[in-house]
Amino acid sequence: MDALLDLAKTLLINYQSAGWGRENDYLDRVEVLTDGGTPPALLNMLKGQFNVTSAWDARGSGTAALVTEEGNAKFLERLQVAQTAFEAAWAADETQDGTAVGMITVCVGLGHPRTEMEKWFQRALTANPDSYAACGAKLNYLYPKWPGEPGDELAFGRQCLRSGNYVAGLPFILVRAQRSRAPQELMKFSQYLGENPVAWADVREYYKHALSKSPADRQLLREYAVWCAGTGHWSAAKKHLKALNGVPAEGVFATLPDFQTFVRQVDFKLKNAPK
Predict the structure, then answer these.
(1) How far apart are CA 193 and CA 237, in angstroms?
(2) Is the whole-model pTM more than 0.85?
(3) How many helices and strands (H and E) does the chain possess?
(4) DSSP secondary structure of 63-88
(5) Structural Rg of the chain based on CA atoms
(6) CA-to-CA distance for 205 and 227, rounded, in angstroms?
């Protein structure tokens, strides 16, 4: 039974990127799981997740103006199927936070009231207080392009920061909220921070505490070094670059020469900074 549960959970992850074109493949595997005695709650969670993914496949990722009438109809239809499946899964088993997280994504697509989203968010946290997925799903709901109001996403991000739950990564939700307001490229986000003191204060607060808990985390070091440089904090940038021991962390610098050029730029700025 444990092996079947693990398989079902693996399928939940795999089919988040499966698309509607794999429906027959999906149904074949569900049949195997059903015959093997997988609990209905997990089967319904799998059904919900699959229909959420296929709904977004039908809609596409563009703005509402780019969505076709047929695509929107399929989007709404499949989300309704997903909602029914998630509700059935929750009725059968209230210990799976993935079910509640799935319902938050449905709330986004169907534009359900915030009270409905909050109900499922609290259910997710009751099932798993460390649910980063639940916080990420709620953040997505709160973006102004979906049902949220301007500023809601930042207020929630700061709430996650105050949680202090760095083990589960919840404070990083605030960084995600700020990054949603700027170009996604790391260097351009660095420029955004330099132009927005409030955003910089939020991001700096996160990295200060995160690095106090994980001072050797290379991803934290390289990101914070870039943010510090972008905001003119050259001494701090140098400090965190030094901790990388001359080896670039992945994600920012494509090559070692790129990293070394950045280090030289920081050294130059630091040397020529006003005393």
Answers:
(1) 14
(2) yes
(3) 14, 0
(4) -GGG--HHHHHHHHHHHHHHHHHHHH
(5) 22
(6) 12
Token output for 34: 């059903």
Single residue among 67, 86, 105 that ends a domain in this structure = 67
* 177 in the same domain as 100: yes
270 and 192 in a common domain: yes
| pLDDT string in tens for the chain (275-residue length) | 445 555 555 555 555 444 445 566 666 677 767 766 778 898 898 889 888 988 988 888 777 778 889 999 999 999 999 999 999 999 999 999 999 999 999 999 999 999 999 999 999 999 999 999 999 999 999 999 899 999 999 999 999 999 999 999 999 999 999 999 987 676 788 889 999 999 999 999 999 999 999 999 998 999 999 999 999 999 999 999 999 988 877 777 778 888 899 999 999 999 887 76
Question: Is residue 23 assigned to a domain?
Answer: yes
Domain residue limits at 19: 1-67
Both 44 and 103 in one domain: the answer is no
Distance CA 123, CA 211 (A): 31
Please list the helix, strand and coil fractions of the chain in percent, rounded to the nearest 5, in that order: 75, 0, 25
Domains in the chain: how many in total?
3
* AA identity, residue 105: T
On whether the CB atoms of residues 111 and 127 are closer than 8 A, the answer is no
